[in-house]
What we know:
Elements: E1 2-9, H1 16-26, E2 31-38, H2 45-55, E3 60-65, H3 71-79, E4 86-89, H4 101-111, E5 115-120, H5 127-143, E6 156-159, H6 160-166, H7 176-181, E7 187-192, H8 206-219, H9 223-252, H10 260-292, E8 300-304
Parallel strand pairs: 1-2, 1-4, 2-3, 5-7
Antiparallel strand pairs: 3-8, 4-6, 5-6
Helix pairs in contact: 5-8, 9-10
Amino acid sequence: MLITIVIPVYNGAETIKGLVDKLVAYLGGQAFQIVLVNDGSVDNSREVCHALSREYATIVKFIDLARNFGEHNAVMAGLHYTDGDYVVIMDDDFQNPPEEVPLLVREAVEHKYDIVYTYYRKKEHSLVRNLGSWFNDRVANILLDKPKDLYLSSFKCLSRMVVGEVTKYTGPYPYIDGLALRCTRNIGRVQVRHEKRHGGRSGYTFRKLVHLWLNMFVNFSVIPLRISSILGLVFSSIGVIFAVLVTREKLSNPAMPVGWASLMITVIVFSGVQLFMLGLLGEYIGRLFLSNNQTPQFVVREVHQRGKEGVRD
């Protein structure tokens, strides 16, 4: 059985060599490979990853993307270069302990799970990041029909079947968990430690978190469109009720002046709802346009692996 570890690298020059060295130490008795994907890092991550592909020529593949595409796009690029029967996805900052990779694979093999997610007793993220994760988890319960007790962690193990299905997606907005959950509900969970970062800082800015959330919110469900339709129906009903009440008041009291405040409130509320719906529709249409326009999911500048130096895709 071959195990593949996919690691998206973004400004991880301080940590990636130590992480790969520890993975090699812990997995030395098993058949495994490591796929490093440099996602447009602005530090010297490219040089460090390239050196690792030479040092561990039979183990490490290095995929260098042409620019920064985002974590999920980088993972998708890595998945295209995996050969393992099981593929473990993990971060480059030591927050996912390398010694626990065999635990995920063992859980998948023993129980024949298609996916094994990790969960943590305590997360070493900032308060804002934890709140974002909590919100994302609640939304995923609705939009992705996710089991409520399942935490969508970035540290997970996928079977070869799931990897094959996930990589069939060619659109520019991949969301790994959404793609995986479309394939199966044969999912396991295992508790692991969540460590503090060993260097650098998170590459997830608020803008990137919003972008990731939109990928799940818009790309993998039509529920937002249905919600907008329900909101339109609800506010239309409120408008009809309000019109009836105003008409009745006017008939019972002809001298009653027209209310400027109520008129402005009505206009503002209904305008806001209409703009929200138009924006939502625009988001769907824009993403359809970019997909049909063949916006690339990722662009590989170079591939470094034994016998295939400098391959371009």
